[in-house]
User: Which sequence fits this backbone?
């Protein structure tokens, strides 16, 4: 599966920064070589700005990267096509700060999500989506149909030929928070129960009466994106708030969230217990 432009740029930035650090080259020298200021070099090394293949090759020569195979792989990443048109049509409603996440998600082979208030988008039925969205978008500036189409498109990551492995820990409030009435909630929880039986989907419930050691007051998602080369995969954490979104890929940050995730899965009900719990709540909506 070809990588999305966002993910190609991210891996390019990682490899170029690692090569620069190994060579002991300062950002100001890179800026001089490229004819840019150091701010733009920083953006390039964070995956927010690209490089031409020629500039990438020139920098790799300066960084003493002489292995033809490695150099070829990195230069090829610099041939990232423009995303023009990628966010047109129904995708145009996706906020700018969330667009990179959509690309990281579609290229992931492992998705781990902790949800605290509502069923996460990857697990929602269309009726549940519409009921939830109706609370937030009441003006003509947003098209609920476009948002639903985009969200359903995202769900393909669970059903494609080589689906991502996906694990979810859901607070009981995700099952109790009412969107759209009993009929919609009953169908939504039935959908969760069905999805939990897929080989690539794991759903655990964190009941209100659980002794929680690793709970966090906000949702988060951890992603693992396979590298386009023989290098290790990219592990990252996505945390979203009202006005912005953070993409964390530092070793310490990822390790901290991995620890929190391990505690959450330990505190939550087991897979079969969670399935029975979901079924029981669904019956209350019947």
Assistant:
């Amino acid at each position: 599966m070809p990588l999305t432009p966002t993910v190609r740029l991210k891996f390019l930035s990682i490899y170029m920064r690692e090569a620069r650090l190994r060579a002991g080259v300062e950002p100001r020298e890179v800026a001089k070589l490229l004819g840019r200021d150091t701010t733009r070099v920083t953006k390039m090394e964070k995956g927010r700005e690209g490089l031409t293949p020629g500039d990438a090759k020139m920098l790799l020569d300066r960084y003493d990267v002489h292995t033809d195979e490695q150099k070829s792989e990195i230069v090829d990443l610099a041939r990232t096509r423009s995303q023009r048109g990628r966010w047109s049509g129904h995708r145009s409603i996706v906020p700018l700060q969330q667009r990179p996440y959509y690309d990281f998600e579609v290229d992931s082979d492992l998705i781990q999500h902790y949800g605290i208030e509502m069923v996460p988008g990857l697990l929602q039925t269309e009726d549940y989506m519409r009921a939830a969205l109706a609370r937030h978008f009441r003006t003509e500036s947003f098209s609920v149909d476009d948002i639903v189409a985009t969200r359903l498109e995202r769900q393909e990551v669970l059903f494609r030929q080589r689906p991502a492995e996906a694990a979810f820990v859901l607070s009981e409030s995700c099952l109790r928070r009412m969107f759209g009435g009993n009929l919609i909630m009953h169908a939504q929880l039935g959908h969760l129960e069905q999805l939990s039986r897929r080989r690539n989907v794991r759903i655990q419930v964190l009941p209100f009466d659980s002794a929680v050691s690793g709970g966090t007051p906000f949702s988060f998602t951890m992603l693992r994106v396979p590298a386009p080369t023989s290098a290790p995969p990219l592990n990252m954490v996505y945390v979203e708030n009202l006005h912005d979104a953070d993409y964390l890929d530092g070793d310490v940050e990822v390790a901290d969230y991995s620890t929190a995730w391990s505690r959450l899965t330990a505190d939550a009900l087991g897979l079969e217990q969670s399935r029975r719990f979901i079924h029981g709540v669904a019956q209350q909506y019947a």
About this structure: The domain at 93-285 is CATH 3.30.870 (Endonuclease; Chain A). DSSP finds twelve helices and six strands in the chain. The longest strand covers residues 165-171.
